[in-house]
Specification:
Number of strands: 3
Shape: elongated
Strand order of the largest sheet: 1-2-3
Number of helices: 7
Largest sheet: 3 strands, antiparallel
Distance between the termini: 103 Å
Structural class: mainly alpha
Length: about 270
């Protein structure tokens, strides 16, 4: 039997025999110590914000560096100006359509105080009676006013174009929005394609409408009175002129929105 050393209670145990509580031991169920923080950083510090490409930080918000009017909240919310995310042509077409519907809603489209929606009822009635109404109109101008055949035809065509103008303009602007839906495989391309077709059709119709109106005015008033035509046109067709102006905004080749932004930047 080995002899125990004197004062055995004062003997210091070896390091490899220290109590299990002094170090992590997977066999005694004690958790591992937490990792020490990196040098120079307290473990209570929050992580540095992550930079977003194309944005710069101002306070607690990320601001787009090339367009400060578009703000991306730091909380990850949506933009406060969703209109700025739309293509220029889409915004241009919205403005053109809004201008047309303003004239259609508040203007006189049947020369009796009827707005565009009420005038469409008259237009439908006029179309359903064609071609009989055209023949009656021709006979009226030749018999009652003694006009020759050519003059009667010109006036009849001019008045017929005005009769259907409400349907044509309304249908043209509705057709311009035929593409560009979310489920569309090519929304921007189809939006431009439909807008271009609508613009071309309404432009040709507007040219025919104005040309025939000038000819009928000359037939009615005489060639020397043609200088009075602009005033007469504004008096009788002002709201239709607003609609014709709105047609220009459907042209995708004419970036009116970019020109507007350039003018705003020049003023600033």
């Amino acid at each position: 039997m080995p002899e125990e050393p004197e004062n055995w209670w004062e003997v210091t145990p070896d390091k490899d025999k220290q109590d299990d509580t002094d170090s992590h031991n997977p066999h005694n169920g004690s958790p591992p110590p937490p990792p020490s923080p990196p040098p120079g950083q307290d473990d209570t510090d929050s992580p540095e914000p992550i930079a977003i490409g194309g944005y710069q930080r101002e306070g607690d918000q990320w601001v787009q560096s090339n367009a400060k009017d578009t703000i991306v909240p730091s909380s990850g919310g949506t933009s406060e100006n969703p209109l700025s995310e739309l293509p220029n042509y889409h915004k241009q077409k919205i403005g053109a359509t809004a201008l047309f519907f303003a004239s259609f809603l508040f203007g006189d489209w049947w020369w009796d105080g009827s707005n565009g929606f009420s005038a469409m009822i008259h237009s439908i009635e006029s179309v359903t009676t064609m071609p009989g109404s055209l023949i009656d109109s021709y006979e009226f101008w030749t018999s009652e006013f003694g006009l020759n055949a050519l003059d009667a035809i010109l006036i009849t065509i001019s008045w017929s174009l005005w009769d259907i103008s409400t349907l044509v303009f309304f249908g043209g602007f509705v057709y311009s929005w035929g593409g560009g839906y979310e489920e569309d495989p090519n929304p921007e391309g189809n939006s431009i394609r439909f807008g271009k077709k609508s613009y071309t059709f309404l432009l040709y119709f507007s040219v025919a409408l104005i040309s025939m109106d000038i000819l009928s005015f000359v037939v009615w008033s005489g060639l020397l009175e043609v200088i009075d035509w602009p005033g007469s046109f504004l008096e009788w067709h002002f709201w239709q002129l607003v609609a014709i102006t709105a047609v220009i905004g459907l042209n995708p080749d004419n970036d009116l929105w970019e020109r507007f932004n350039s003018l705003q930047s020049a003023k600033e």
